[in-house]
Amino acid sequence: MGNIKAIFLKELRGYFNSPMAYIFLVIFALVNGYFFTNTFFLIGQSDLRTLFSTVPLVYLFFIPAVSMGLIARERNIGTIEIMSTLPLKTREFVIGKYLAALTLILAALAVTSVHFFTLLQVSDTVDTGAVISGYIGLALVGALYTSVGTFASSLSENQVVAFIIGVFIVLTFWLMDKMLIFIPSGISGLVQYLAVEYHLSNISRGVIDTRNLVYFFSFIGFFLFLTIHTLDLRKWKAG
Q: Closest Cα to residue 152, out of 67, 225, 59?
């Protein structure tokens, strides 16, 4: 745990010691705030459904952008070779990096809670339970996409390439349920289960089913496992 904490704090300080974290938080808040205020002030819709449908779209590009340098940057400047000589396990390195990026994503998500408190001030019909479950769903989606971005970052030392790979994978997860009409009926159920939107919509309705949790945690673990395996394989080849 000590090594994970050290990597986590090092990466988190790296975010906030540079303008990157602040730029990310401001842009994330502005983009989501724009769509929320559009429905809130223009058509008087006093709920968070628009926000909950906008955040996953923003995630598609922002999370790969945040996570693209997690490992690619270390490989590009050569510090990952130095770390391989330290008493540091690959899984500790990966988990520490992943948790730092996820913390930034969750911080950005927490900023949007200002819209929830705004609604509480102007409306007495806000379904607090549905809002909380919606935020849980968005946090899980963020955690999944961050694990994808971490894996993408391990595949190349070029951060732009890592970004493109990350966007491609998360777009695939997001588009799966949109493509069901083109999928043979025999496997449509499987494709629907693999779609992020299917599980997010269930949780956003206040239905936090065990199957949804298993889906998210399984894929998070899967992509972190792939990241660890990729780095171990490169280390073995280099040795």
A: 67
Radius of gyration of the chain (CA): 19
Distances in whole angstroms, Cα of residue 85 to Cα of each of 52, 69, 89:
44, 21, 10
Give 111-157 pLDDT, tens digit per residue. 888 877 777 666 666 677 778 888 999 999 999 999 999 999 999 88
Give the distance between the most distant pair of CA atoms in the chain.
64
CA 133, distance to chain mean position in Å, is 17
| Euclidean distance between CA atoms 176 and 145, whole angstroms | 15
All structural domains of the chain with their residue ranges: 2-238
145-173: average pLDDT? 94
Residue-by-residue DSSP string for the chain: -HHHHHHHHHHHHHHHTSHHHHHHHHHHHHHHHHHHHIIIIIS---SSHHHHHHHHHHHHHHHHHHHTTTTHHHHHHTHHHHHTTSS--HHHHHHHHHHHHHHHHHHHHHHTHHHHHHHHHH-S---HHHHHHHHHHHHHHHHHHHHHHHHHHHS-S-HHHHHHHHHHHHHHHHHGGGGGGGS-HHHHHHHHHH-HHHHHHHHHTT---HHHHHHHHHHHHHHHHHHHHHHHHHHHHH-
The answer to whether 157 and 78 are in contact (CB under 8 A) is no
Which residues are CB-neighbours of 1 under 8 A, at least 6 positions away?
A: none
Query: What are the tokens at 220?
Result: 């998070």
Could you tell me how far CA 139 lies from the centroid of its own chain? 8
Taking the C-alpha atoms of residue 175 and residue 177, their distance in angstroms, rounded to an integer, is 6
pTM of the model: 0.90
